[in-house]
Write a structure and sequence with these properties.
Blueprint lengths: L4 H18 L1 H9 L1 H4 L33 H8 L8 H13 L12
């Protein structure tokens, strides 16, 4: 069964949290410069912010409110014909890299 873009994103987030918990250097890199920690090839218009909870704190992330389709929703129906990195293909590629056994770092092209 194929995962939706949102399911793939959630799987990536869970894998990144796991890696950041197990690898202090990766955690520090992810906090200081998420794009660089993920290989630097973020789709146009995508920004990743990493926040670290303090003891006794819970961060709740709410989705953006919009009457328009998000880039990820548009990607799901458009196919991304212009060759630019798309949010959907970004999450698929990132998840595949995270799942690669023996992966030393999340470096390389995420296009």
């Amino acid at each position: 069964m194929t995962m939706s873009i949102l399911e793939t994103r959630f799987a990536c987030e869970a894998a990144l949290r796991g890696r950041a918990t197990a690898d202090a250097a990766f955690r520090a890199s992810l906090i200081s410069d998420p794009a660089a920690a993920l290989g630097g090839a973020l789709p146009e218009g995508l920004t990743i912010r990493v926040l670290e909870e303090a003891p006794g704190e819970v961060l709740l992330v709410l989705p953006a409110v919009s009457d328009q389709l998000s880039d990820m929703q548009l990607d799901a129906v458009s196919g991304g014909a212009d060759g630019a990195p798309r949010a959907g293909s970004f999450w698929d590629t990132l998840l595949n890299q995270i799942r690669t056994p023996g992966m030393p770092a999340l470096v390389g092209s995420l296009k």
